[in-house]
Each structure stands twice: as C-alpha cells, then as structure tokens.
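Problem: given the chain below (504 residues), write out its structure.
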Amino acid sequence: MTTATPVEPQNESATVTLIGDVSSLGRRGVRPPVASSESRRAALDGLPPELRRANPAALPEVSELDAIRHFTRLSQKNFSIDGQFYPLGSCTMKYNPRINEKVAAMPGFLRCHPLQDDADTQGSLRIFHDLQEILCQVLGMGGVTLAPAAGAHGEFAGMAIIRAWHLANNTGRDEVLIPDSAHGTNPASAALAGFKVREIKSGADGRVSVDALRAALGPKTAGIMLTNPNTCGLFETSIREIADAVHEAGGLVYYDGANLNAIVGRARPGDMGFDVVHMNLHKTFSTPHGGGGPGAGPVGVCEKLVPFLPAPHVRKTAEGRFDFHTPDQSIGRMMGFHGNAGVLVRALAYALAQGGQGLWDVAGHAVLNANYVLNRLPALFERPFGDRCMHEALVTIRRTEKETGIKAFDVAKRLLDLGFHAPTIYFPLLVPECFLIEPTETESKETLDQFVAAMEQIAAEVRSAPELLKSAPSTKPTGRLDEVSAAKELNVCCRWDYEEVKLG
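Solution.
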C-alpha cells in the first residue's frame, strides 16, 4: 500500500503585504487624458453639491507592476481546485476542464446580448435546447428549465412548481417532509415557496426511516425533499418504497441533485419515482464554483409538471428553428433573462466531451475514490455507517473529542497547515464531530495518498502535540479567526492610513 508523506508548506504568516504598504504619493500605473475645464464643469453641474467630494478619494497610488504583483500574490493565497485538493463533502469540487472555458469564450457566445432577437441567436438557443435534452435523458425527466442561477435557486424553482401544481389542482396540501440529514437550504426553499416543513428522522443506518415517513404522511402532505445518495454518503435503498408511499398519499417527490455525481450516467432520479429534480451544473457538470464564476441549477420535471416550468423556455419549432416561449401554467421568471448562458455552454461542452460512457465512468471513479479514502483513514476517524459509501466518506472523531477535547474544527484548521483544504465539518448534523470527504473522480491516487498521510499525521499529533491542533493554522497569513463573529458582525475596514502615507 502506498504511503505518502505530506510536505509542510512554506510559512506564509509573515508575507502579508497590503496594497497601501507599497503606495507612494504621485505614483501612477496609467495616466488618463486630462479632462478639460469645460467637461469637468459640465459633469459637476449635474451632481448635487452635497454629493461632491471635498478631497480626492483616499486610494493607493501604485505602479502597474505593483498592482499586478499585489493581485497575483492575493490569488496565490486562495485555496482553489487548480492549486490544492479541495474535498468539501456534498460540494463536488472537481476540476474544471480548460476546453470548456475556451468554448464559452468564443466570440459568438461571449458577445451575444440577451435582448437580441431569436432569429439572431439560433446558435445559442440550440445550445440551450440541446443541453435541456441531454439533461432530460440523464435525469429521466419530461422537461428541463435552465433558468435557475444556482442550486438553492433551483430548489426554490422546483418547490414553486410543486406549489403551483397543488394550487392548480386545489389539493389543499401545504406540508413538506424533509429528512434530518437534508441540506439546510431544503427547509428554507420549501418555506420560501409557501410550505410548512416537517422533519423526518433517519434510522440507525443513516437512511430515511420508512416507518417514520409513513407515520408523517397525511392529508396535508404536499411532498418530500430527498437527496440520493444522502448526505451521509449512503444510497437510499428504499427509494422506490418511499416514492410510492408519498405518491399514494397525494404528494410529489423532489430530488435534491447536490449528490448527483455519484450516480450520473448510471441511475436516473426519474426511474426512482422523483417528480422534480434540481441539479448543480457547477458540481456534476464541472462548471466553476462560487468566486470562480456564476452557478447554474437546472430543474427537471415529470411530464405532468412541464406546463409549470419557468419562462422563458427554449423549444424547437416545427420548422426546425428555436425560440423562447412561456409554458401554459408557468410559475413565471426566475431571473431577468435566460439563465447564466456562459455556464450552460461550459456544461454542454463537458457533456458532449464525456458522452454516455464518460458519465458512467465519472460516477464509478467518484465512488471508488471516496471508498478508497474511507478505508485508508486511521482508526481515530470512526466510520458511523460502515466501510462502504457512495461518492463521499463520512467519518467522526466524537470519541476522541470526549477523551482529548480535540474537535473536528481543530483537525480542519491543522489540515490548512499541511496544505489541504478541510472537508466539510459538522455536517450532516445527525453525526457529531464529523467530516464529510468528497474527493471526486478527478483526483489521482497519489493525491489521495497524500491527503491520507496528512490525516495520519494529525491523528498522531492528537496525542503527541495537541497544541499544534488547538493553535492551527500557524503557517497562514491569518491565524484562527472568530468565525461566528466574522459571520454575524461583518466589519471590513482598510488598515492603510492614507493621511499617514501622504504626510510621510
């Protein structure tokens, strides 16, 4: 068995340089043309006196080279999938192929304006239509909308469709069942769509308790929101029984596609009995996450819900052309235009490059990598649900925390010192002091071995050098932060004193 030794990264704690630190009065990177007195007077005439500056803005004055070096240094301090292993559970931080970026940057896509006539944008409309068709096949759905701009946006769209269907059929149902292992956005999306939320307890095996589900079903049940595999990294083996029970009770079954990477190309939510599916193109279909670019959360629906899809929806006419139309009972628009077009282009490029066999392999390799990590981790990281998982491995140090006081949070911070982004911690909520590790299919065995070696080193440090974990990170530009206060009392201030630099 291969064992890799983690390499201690260069100490970055003393390398923080702010842009103001290199500012020098009068220094310029560019020299724009000097405005004439007439043009400056004309500009000021349209600006109320109370909105005019008494003094120039206190901005750093630097050369072009200083500016380039500053922002390059900042980019190198970020954790990113391009530079580091990023095993966030339920986030699918896979590599974004550069060919997708090249395709999305083609002038015909890049310069297309959303207000152009359909006749002038047939290429882009075909991109949308073809992606809709591929996603229908992958999901086993009757129709797909590309409008939602993110996963939670897709969740809300899906629940709004379910709400609209119940209202159209006068069912009087307004209660949604959600397992205790669900993503936190699920109850929020259901509530935002107008539903009351009822939690369903998981069984001892980490899966939905069918008995608890049946006990919760009733005349007010509008549906259930499920992730499969669930956030414990386990496949819901009773999914058909669950879907049948909800349908028999008069509800609809919603699929949270956050974990679709585990089954893409191999199993379809529609075949499991799901009526509505949202998926994250910035997960399963490799488009950039977060700060790397806007997301996309398409929603698929079964045939009876197609009339409720958001507008505008792309269709192919009898003449073979493409246009936008509004479905008969549409829930309306999800955003100003037609979705994040550049992300959709990237997703189609990925789907076409993979093909059916490629998507089959994606799921297989994702599950293989997760199981490899799960079974290589040292014994300190306990497996609450056995030695088999789907695409993400769930482990816990709850026993170690009781014995030593070392928490999952401490281990996560120590991983930063060793050059790895921490996995998701404290989620799912039903497993205390847990780590949810999703390596994805794009990581090599060598990288996984290095990560395991880092976890082995930390496991040894729990006993031999616990202070290293309690004080971590110690090699980064900033040490351990008060994350609760940072989230609740945001205070972004500039440490650079313009007057001091000016006078100095």
